[in-house]
Specification:
mainly alpha; 6 strands; two-stranded antiparallel ribbon; single chain
């Protein structure tokens, strides 16, 4: 096979990128795929959370009632995390850059932290168990992440190192890092993370049902943090987008993912080690 045939085959197998991040424009209004997929993710996550609340004996409408309490602080936390950890992107022109969320830039760990604070307040306000609420919401949250990641596809962002794998994504020259200007295709890390999140969602739903008699309130939420952080660690090793660095060359999100996974797993193990010892018969 000559070089021209190889290039043609590669082009057919690789993932194309869309020509524009905008769905449509009407005067000053522009509907962007990034915002559209975030909205779709929130809708799907809310639906699944309502189903899980129903299954646990709560009113499923609590999922809808909690949206403003959870989404707004989650959104603010996500943006703050991104701006603080990647401030170099905005240092030269912070206003209005730090507010231009439609161009991308939301950190999931900030979203979880902000959303958790909102959920804690909501649970107190409605007089329900925060841990039960967190367990009900966790599968929907990771499903929302899976859908929202497709906004990165349309923005041509959050891709990984160059690759010659058939599913490599073609990135427009203006969106490639300068050091990879000659590369044709890259790892679609947003896609990897989307698939990972779907699998985590299914795993959480399975564990919640299969081991319901063994689980304690809060276990599903902790398992979500552990599984997502482990998966995110490996995805992060492929990414080449700008990120905050520790020690000059270590991606900060690798550190955050490691700490989050270890803490969640330690808490899970400690909770069940304690409960096992409490159940041990005396002699």
């Amino acid at each position: 096979m000559n070089e021209l045939q190889l290039l043609a085959t590669y082009a057919l197998l690789s993932l194309p990128s869309p020509p524009s991040p905008i769905v449509f424009e009407a005067g000053p209004f522009a509907l962007r795929y990034y915002g559209l997929f975030i909205a779709l993710g929130i809708a799907a996550g809310t639906w699944l959370a309502s189903r899980e609340l129903d299954r646990r004996g709560y009113d499923g409408t609590l999922a809808l009632d909690s949206l403003l309490f959870v989404v707004i602080p989650g959104f603010v936390g996500a943006r703050i995390y991104h701006v603080v950890t990647d401030y170099g992107l905005y240092a030269d022109d912070p206003i209005p850059g730090v507010f231009e969320v439609w161009n991308g830039g939301l950190g999931i760990y900030g979203a979880v932290a902000g959303g958790a604070l909102g959920a804690l307040f909501f649970a107190w306000y409605r007089g329900i168990s925060f841990l039960d609420y967190a367990d009900s919401v966790a599968p929907g949250l990771v499903l929302a992440q899976a859908i929202g990641r497709w906004g990165n596809y349309f923005n041509q962002e959050l891709f990984g190192r160059p690759t010659d794998l058939p599913w490599g994504i073609r990135i427009a020259p203006e969106n490639r890092p300068a050091e990879y200007a000659d590369a044709a295709a890259f790892h679609p890390t947003f896609f990897y993370e989307s698939v990972l999140n779907v699998l985590i969602c299914l795993a959480l739903l399975y564990v919640a049902r299969r081991f319901s008699g063994w689980l304690r309130s809060g276990d599903i939420a902790l398992l979500y943090i552990a599984l997502y952080s482990v998966g995110r660690f490996f995805v992060e090793t492929l990414r080449i987008d700008p990120a905050f660095l520790i020690g000059g060359d270590f991606r900060g999100n690798l550190f955050v993912s490691s700490i989050a996974a270890l803490l969640a797993l330690m808490v899970l193990l400690m909770r069940h080690a304690r409960s096992s010892s409490d159940r041990k018969p005396s002699t």
